C-alpha cells in the first residue's frame, strides 16, 4: 500500500477518533446532567469551550477529508514522482493532526494563528498534489 493511501486512512481514522471523543464527552455531560439532550443544536455552540473546540476540530477534519481523498485516490499510481506525492500526503496528515491538537488545546489568538499556519501547509500540499495530477494527466 502506498504512503499516500496510508495517509488517507490515517486522516479518516483521525476524524473517527475526534468524533468518538466528542461523543464520549457529550455522553458524560448528558449522564452527569451538565447538558440536556434538547439543548444540543447542530452547528451552534453548546457545552464548555474546550468541548466546542473539539467538536469544531472534528468538523474541520470531515470538511477536508473529501478533498484529500479525491487527490489521493486520483493521484496514486498516476503521478510520475510517487515519492514526492507520498511526501505531500504525509505532510498533509501531519499538519492536520497538528492543526487539530492546536484547535483543541486553545482558542487564543496565538493558537488561532498557528492553527491557520497548519491549515495553509495542508492547502499548499493540496494545490501541489492537484498540480502534479494535472501534469501527469497531460492537462498542464
Q: How many beta-strand elements?
A: 0
Q: How far apart are the first and last residues' alpha carbons, in Å?
A: 28 Å
Q: How large is the count of helical segments? A: 4
Give start-end ranges of low-pLDDT stretches: none
CATH superfamily: Membrane associated eicosanoid/glutathione metabolism-like domain
Beta strand %: under 5%
Structural category: mainly alpha
| Oligomeric state of the chains in view | single chain
In the CATH scheme, what's the topology name? Four Helix Bundle (Hemerythrin (Met), subunit A)
Q: Shape from CA axes? A: elongated
Average residue-wise pLDDT: 93
What order do the helices and strands follow? HHHH
Evaluate the radius of gyration.
Answer: 17 Å
CATH class: Mainly Alpha
Overview of this protein structure:
This protein is mainly alpha-helical and 140 residues long. The protein has one domain: Up-down Bundle (Four Helix Bundle (Hemerythrin (Met), subunit A)). It has four helices and no strands. Helix 1 runs parallel beside helix 3 and helix 3 runs antiparallel to helix 4. The two termini are 28 Å apart. 26% of the residues are buried. The model has no long low-confidence stretch (mean pLDDT 93).
